[in-house]
Known about the structure:
It is a single chain. The protein is α+β, with helices and mostly antiparallel strands and 255 residues long. The longest helix is centred in the first third of the chain and has 24 residues, at 7-30. The chain is globular, with a radius of gyration of 17 Å. It has helices at residues 7-30, 37-50, 123-142, 149-162; strands at 73-77, 80-82, 96-105, 108-117, 173-175, 182-186, 203-206, 209-211, 218-220, 227-229, 235-237, 240-245, 248-251. The protein has one domain (7-251): Alpha-Beta Complex (Creatine Amidinohydrolase). The strands form 4 sheets. The protein has a 5-stranded antiparallel beta sheet. A 3-stranded antiparallel beta sheet has the order 1-3-4. A 3-stranded antiparallel beta sheet has the order 2-10-9, with no helix packed on it. Helix 1 (7-30) runs antiparallel to helix 2 (37-50) and helix 3 (123-142) packs antiparallel against helix 4 (149-162).
Amino acid sequence: MVELKTDTSIDAMYEAGQVVARALTAVREAADVGVSLLELDALAHDVLRAAGATSPFLGYRPSFAPTPFPAVLCASVNDAIVHGIPTGYRLREGDLLSADFGAEVGGWVGDSAISFTVGTPRPADLRLIETAERALEAAVEAAVVGNRIGDIAHAIGSVCRSAGYGVPEDFGGHGIGRRMHEDPPVPNEGRPGRGLPLRHGMVLAIEPMVVASGRDDYHAAADGWTLRTNDGSRAAHVEHTVAITDSGPRILTAR
Ligand code: MG
Ligand code: MG
């Protein structure tokens, strides 16, 4: 069931979204060659504590997961698409990091992700990240009353596919509110004009993922969480929490 949020609730979700935005900005500023993923997780945790917020990621255990998620930040490097567990791995020259983060404030959750490179970037990585960001922009533009979920999905899929990239199967965005994952699912590919009509008060986490090789398949790493591309090619992942309103889409995790 899709729960529509009141304007007051959307304002409260914006507060959570802004904690997420601050944490991701801090992670991006701190990420550099030699910095470990655990150090970035600790930094993000500091931002949560300072804001009096809690983590919807820490201890999260969906049905596919063998263990509760042990961190507040997902840190996915290079061929990791999403759900990377922060480890002692130290970032290297040219790495591509996707950082996904959530915060809960006053019972409301925000969820957002960024991808960026460390040190001197590979041009191919910049194009990959730029495409994921363009897909997210197109999806937000499609997140208007009168459209349907399929219009958002189609906007994402067509930007990614026309650039020649893969779109990982079966993973995508979701409704969000008092819980991180609510109805409806927001696929990263779909048919325009199909699916649930978008209404004022729907809040969606929209999250394009792209794979450089053009392949869509992936596997879970030995930790049971990290999803990696099957051919080792690099992936990017970006996400915003977006409220659909009569006056247009409102990006609650805007940085
Ligand atoms: Mg996320
Ligand atoms: Mg999400």
